[in-house]
Amino acid sequence: MLFPKGGWEMDESKTEAALRETVEEAGVTGIVECELGKWSFKSKRNDTYSEAFMFPLLVKEELELWPEKNVRERKWVSVAEAREVCQHWWMKEALDRFVRRLTFLQQEEDLGLGPCSLSLEPKISL
Predict the structure, then answer these.
(1) Where would I find the Nudix hydrolase domain in this sequence (predicted)?
(2) Going by C-beta distance under 8 Å and a sequence separation of 6 or more, which residues neighbour residue 77?
(3) Which residue of 22, 24, 36, 61 shows the fewest CB atoms closer than 10 Å?
(4) How confident is the model at residue 113 (pLDDT cuts 50, 70, 90)?
(5) 42 in Cβ contact with 49 (< 8 Å)
(6) HSE-up of 123 (CA within 13 Å, CB side)?
């Protein structure tokens, strides 16, 4: 199991590259969210180190046809299943970071906190 990954072109941002790779490799499109981080790893192909920037994607559409459909299978799995079959330590770490982010956001939501809820003005209940 691999997450979509690849390089980015000179005329695109990392976010645009992430969206392009998900369309090419997984046949999904959506909203690229805040970067999870950057990882360095040793490439199997040319025995050099590469860097990966990982982004979560809020999937909005699954495509029936995509560029790499004949060489890749798209499969939806739980977080636990993904972590279990993930081949690379840095992908597992990115997945763990994503889960922590979601947990933190859920805790904030449960407390009624949001991006605009922290105000300098006191609240008065009548």
Answers:
(1) 1-99
(2) 1, 85
(3) 61
(4) low
(5) yes
(6) 4
E-strand stretches of 1-126: 28-32, 37-42, 49-54, 57-62
The predicted pLDDT at position 29 comes to 94
Taking the CA atoms of 33, 36, 38 and 42 in sequence, report the sign of the dihedral they define.
negative
Average pLDDT, the chain: 83
Please state the φ and ψ torsions of residue 31, each to the nearest 5 degrees: -110, 120
Task: Annotate 79-114 with b (16+ C-beta within 10 A) or e (fewer).
Answer: eeebeeebeeeebeebbeebeeeeeeeeeeeeeeee
Question: Which amino acid, 11?
Answer: D
pLDDT at site 121: 41
Please give the pLDDT value at position 69: 95
